[in-house]
Amino acid sequence: MSFFEITGRRRLSGSLAVHGAKNSVLPILAACILAPGECVIHNCPHLSDVSATLDILRGLGCAVHRDGNTVTVDASVVQRSAVPEQLMREMRSSVIFLGATLARMGEAQLSYPGGCELGPRPINLHLDALRKLGAQIREEDGVLYCCAPDGLHGCEVHLPFPSVGATENTMLAACGGSGTTTIVGAAREPEIEDLQMFLNALGAQVQGAGSNVITVQGAARLRPAEHTVMGDRIVAATYLSAAGAAGGEVELTGVCPEHLSTVLDVLEEAGCRLWYAKDMIHLCSDGRLQGVRAIRTAPYPGFPTDAQSVVMAALACGRGRTVFEENIFQSRYRHVSELARMGADIRLTGRTAVVQGADLHGADVCSTDLRGGAALVVAALAAEGVSRVGELHHIDRGYDHLELALSKLGAEIYRKNG
Ligand code: UD1
Question: Model pTM?
């Protein structure tokens, strides 16, 4: 079992390029199967979730090749329409293959995704939207069988909640349908704009991403394309939280400050000094952040649920009080009990967490989920003494060699086996 050994209280300084966004690269790789031929995707981070996605593409019959951060997907031949159960279990987001496979093959099969570390993860909105587009879907022994015997056809899809995955699945399926699909109440996350950009590079006609109404003119003839994945705003939020809590001066490149504005506002209010340019964020901190006004997670452009844990960790080792309200997922405070082992003072009541800044000390802790694990690393970097953070498979899902990036900034962090 590997773990990170981290000696805290080292100032972080230097410059880092933020790697490609996990939540962008997954739907973009799934979208590759829409276009017969070879797509070239740059800035693909080395993440276990990306490896699982590439395995799914191979399983469907695509030829996949990785050279550094560039992945080529040749979807000239797609022989299968079933996502193997093992891969589905490994990565819940593989549900994104439902829309893409339906669009390309007219049918799709995958095991019903269960809940995950964050609580129940229903896909009712995905299924309702696909049914509206003409898909017939039945569940048998935990397997979803989807087909579109009369083809998919454009329609108006109303999402009662701006689900990121349901918006993307609908966009992908609609590309393979006839006529115009309008998604009303769409999620507005920047990763959806990145997907739109890639789909349009393939020759699709998608408009409106970034707003809550997206239209897709279906049945365009799609051809392969080349695309560079946007920078990961949550990874950027993690580095910034770490530098804010441990103190130091860091410059991040390859990430758009606008995509992170709610997080940057919080860090500024907590006492960090920030400068931004087009694709650059510069942060300077004396460490020991101040408590800030209540942080309520919400769909974009609100405060991202994915940044809640890392910002909480940074404020837990500061001074003063901050109230968090988690409004997206039910079980997104599992890192709290681990932070408490390091001396954090956090009271939980339902969806609210009240954080009182405290002096943290090193401890042996376990990652509970992807962003929860990253939060433990942030806390360990600011805590006095040595911490060991285990269950790294969670962190490796979404951070490309986190320890190497942080070492580059001067952190004392090593991956060890034991
Ligand atoms: C995506 C991100 C994830 C992020 C989340 C919210 C990817 C690969 N993952 O996940 O990192 O935390 O957005 O920003 O992009 N819901 C339903 N029914 C559905 C779908 C969702 O009730 O059919 C609920 C979910 O249970 C959750 C909320 O809607 O409470 C948000 O989920 P959603 O936006 O769909 O998140 P994901 O796309 O799964």
Answer: 0.97
Architecture label for domain 2-19+231-417: Alpha-beta prism (3.65)
Give the distance (Å) from ligand 1 centre to CA of residue 164: 6
Of 301, 345, 351, nearest to 324 by C-alpha is 351
Closest CA to 261 of 244, 245, 247, 240: 240
- pLDDT at residue 118 tops 70: no
Strand ranges in 209-289 using DSSP code E only, listed in sequence order: 213-217, 226-228, 248-253, 273-277, 280-285
Three-state SS at 295: strand
Nearest-angstrom CA–CA distance, 25 and 45: 8
What residues line ligand 1, using a CB cutoff of 6 Å?
23, 26, 93, 121-126, 161, 163-166, 187, 305-306, 328-329
210: DSSP letter: T
Please name the residue that has the structure tokens 């911490």.
Answer: 387
Evaluate whether 152 touches 103 at the Cβ level (below 8 Å): yes
**C-alpha 87: how far from chain center:** 18
Identical fold for domains 2-19+231-417 and 22-228, yes or no, is yes
Looking at 273-348, list the stretches that DSSP marks H as alpha helix, in order from N- to C-terminal side. Answer: 305-316, 335-341
Picking from 101-115, 127-141, 248-262, 344-358, which range would have the lowest pLDDT averaged per residue?
101-115
User: Where exactly are the structural domains of the chain?
Assistant: 2-19+231-417, 22-228
Q: Is the pLDDT of residue 297 over 70?
A: yes
Q: State yes or no: pLDDT of 82 exceeds 60.
A: yes
Nearest CA to ligand 1 atom 4: 306
22-228 CATH: 3.65.10.10
Q: Which residue has the tokens 């002096």?
A: 359
> What is the identity of the amino acid at 162?
P
Which residue's alpha carbon is at the smallest distance from atom 33 of ligand 1? 163
Report phi then psi at 100, rounded to 5: -65, -45
